[in-house]
Amino acid sequence: MEQRQLGKGGPMVSVLGFGAWPIGGGMGAVDEATAIATVRAAIDHGITLIDTAQAYRTSEAIIGKALKDGYRARCFLATKVSRDYSREGIRAAIENSLRALQVENVDLYQIHGWNPQYPIEESMETMEQLRQEGKTRFIGVSNFNVEQMQQALKTAWFHSLQPRYNMFDRQIEAEILPFCAQTGIGVLSHSPLAKGLLTGRYTPDHKFPEDDERSRNPRFQGEAFANYLAKAERLKKEIAEPRGLSLVQLAIGWQLRHPAITCVLVGAKNPQQVQEHIGAVGWTLTAEELRRIEEILHE
Ligand SMILES: NC(=O)c1ccc[n+]([C@@H]2O[C@H](COP(=O)([O-])OP(=O)(O)OC[C@H]3O[C@@H](n4cnc5c(N)ncnc54)[C@H](OP(=O)(O)O)[C@@H]3O)[C@@H](O)[C@H]2O)c1
C-alpha cells in the first residue's frame, strides 16, 4: 500500500486509514466478532493507520481486542480526547484510552474539536507533556480552522489535522488544505464517503434505524437525501463504472489527487467493505475525468 509522510518530519503512514467509528456502533450495531475481523482485515490488507476516539462508544475496547496476536506492532494507532480539554480532562482521557486499547502508548493523540471553554495553551501544553512522557509519539488536532491551528501552534507543534472532506464537503479546499501544505501539517480526512451518501447503497426511501446517527441527520431525509443520491448515481454511472471502479473506490481515490491529503480515513463495518476500499489506491484520474466530476458536483 502506498504511504505518505504525516507532516513535516513525521512518520510514513498508509494512504488509506481505518476509521473506527462504525465498529463502535455509531452507525448501527456491529457484532463484536465482525468488528474485530474488520480491524484485522484492514491491517492484513496493508492499512497501517487506525483512527478511534474516546467518544466512539465501544470502539477503543474492540480495537484493544483486535490488536492482540501481534497486530499492535503492525499499525499506527491514533485516538482522540473528545470532550474535556482541560489538563485534568486530557490526562484522565488518555489513561482511559490506554486501558481500553490495552496498550502502553498510542502513536497519535488528537484533540477532537475546538472548544473555547478550555484555553488552547493549557490543552496543547498538556498534549506536549504527554508526548514527552512517551504516552503518545505524535500529537494532532481535529476539526480546527486556520486561526485555531495558528493559535495551537504558538504552544506546541502538532503533526496532523483531521478535517471532514469528501465530494460533498469541500470547505477545507480554500484555506485549510493550503495552510496545512505550507506549514507541513499532515491531513487525515474524515467522512470520505459522506457517511454512506457516496456508496450507491441507498435509495431515497431508506429509513435508518434509531441507533444509527444517520436517522437524525437531515442529509439522509427527504429531498436533500434524494438530491445527494442522484448526484452519487451520476458519479457512479458516468465516471466510476467506465473506469471499472465502484463509487466507493472513486470517492476515496479522488481525495488522493490532492497532495495535501496524507491519509483518507474510511469507516467500515465488515471485511468485505475493507476489501473494496483497497481498490481505491493505485490509479489516478485523468484531467478530463476530474473536470467531469466538477461538472456533476456543481450542476
Ligand atoms: N474527527 C471527527 O470529528 C470525525 C468525524 C467523523 C468521522 N471521523 C473519522 O473518520 C472515519 C470515517 O468516517 P465515518 O466512518 O464516519 O464515515 P464514512 O467513512 O464516510 O462512511 C462509513 C460508512 O460507509 C459505509 N461503507 C463503507 N464502506 C462501504 C462499502 N465498501 N460499500 C458500501 N458501504 C460502505 C458503511 O456504512 P453502511 O454499510 O451502514 O452504509 C460505513 O459505516 C471515522 O470512522 C472516524 O475514524 C472523525
Question: Overview of this structure, please?
Answer:
The chain is α/β, with parallel strands linked by helices and about 300 residues long. The protein has a single domain (about 5-200, about 260-285), classed as TIM Barrel (Alpha-Beta Barrel), CATH 3.20.20.100. The chain is built from ten helices and ten strands. It has helices at about 30-45, 60-65, 85-100, 120-130, 145-155, 175-185, 220-240, 245-255, 270-280, 285-299, and strands spanning about 5, 10-15, 15-20, 50, 75-80, 105-110, 135-140, 160, 185-190, 265. The protein has an eight-stranded parallel β-barrel with strand order 3-4-5-6-7-8-9-10, surrounded by five helices. Helix 1 (about 30-45) packs across helix 2 (about 60-65) and helix 2 crosses helix 3. The relative contact order is 0.15.
> What is the arithmetic mean of pLDDT?
97
Name given to the CATH homologous superfamily: NADP-dependent oxidoreductase domain
Strand order of the largest sheet: 3-4-5-6-7-8-9-10
The CATH class:
Alpha Beta
The tally of domains stands at 1
Write the layout of secondary structure elements.
Layout: E1 3-5, E2 12-14, E3 16-19, H1 32-44, E4 49-51, H2 59-66, E5 76-81, H3 87-101, E6 106-111, H4 120-132, E7 136-142, H5 146-153, E8 160-162, H6 176-183, E9 186-189, H7 222-240, H8 247-255, E10 263-267, H9 271-278, H10 287-298
Parallel strand pairs: 3-4, 3-10, 4-5, 5-6, 6-7, 7-8, 8-9, 9-10
Antiparallel strand pairs: 1-2
Helix pairs in contact: 1-2, 1-9, 2-3, 7-10
The structure holds NADP nicotinamide-adenine-dinucleotide phosphate.
